[in-house]
Predict the structure of ABC transporter permease.
Amino acid sequence: MSLPNTLPGAAGSADRPDTIARRAWTLLMQRPTYLIFAAVTLFFVVFAPNFATVSTAEAILRITALVSIIAVGMTFVIICAEIDLSVGSVASWASMVVGLLLERNVPTIVAVLAVLAMGAFIGFINGILVTKLRIPSFLVTLGMLSVFSGLALTVTDTEPVPIVDDRFSNLFWNASYVGLPVPIWWTLLLVAVGFYLLSMTVFGRQVYAVGGNLVAARFSGIKTDRIKIASFMLVSTTAALAGMLLAARSTAGNPSLGTGLELDVIAAVIIGGTSLFGGIGGILGSVVGAIFIGILGFGLLVMGLSTSIQEVIKGAIIILAVALNRR
């Protein structure tokens, strides 16, 4: 005799509308940032002219691609209870390096791989300084921020490096596939890889363990230094990739392209539910945070507010969202 599917927890009741509504409400209560996200989006849909259009959604996703890509790597670092403030300057430096390589007729794919390798090496240096010399990551990456900002300004005496390689521009910005612009495809690729690494591999579980309790992770046999170094390498590589997207967008390597990018990235990760104290967080939440920042900035721009007022409102809403998430 088979059991009726009306028992509590049975498949028949799992998809009832009231059950779905309760689960959605529970999610909103656990992640109040999503409630603010929905409220802000609804506000712009109602009051901002021509906001609720497909072209607007595409523009927002293109704009947030840079933040989303770096946020994937930053999520690993912050879950490890560390931070990387150098990603903006690394992105600027990467844009300059790829511009210089292409200017010297280095094949496009070779230039791209060289810049990605350079990003990974920068992350390796950051990780070594943090784990072996026990220098706080805040100080290490703050110093690296200055180092690579200075290098980007010095290498061409503050002049941008024009990029005329159409293959490079199409690879990172101009082309579209199946109706989606290339930056969105890059975002989807990085989100998929980051989600897989963090949620479905031993490495991802070790990242959570290191951030949750470093001492316990060491006693359980986890090579905690290696996990942190790998995480720093990931975020610097994503920063180098974002730098190439910036270069393709502006058709030039520019020493100021990534200025302030680190602030939006860190805000996106924290808004998405990742704890600055480590051990808690996820890739999808970070992407939601990046899209939230993109919608906020684009919506305020469409409403015609001055840049100064935009920054005030944007900062206040981000603080509110982070405070509620922390609560």
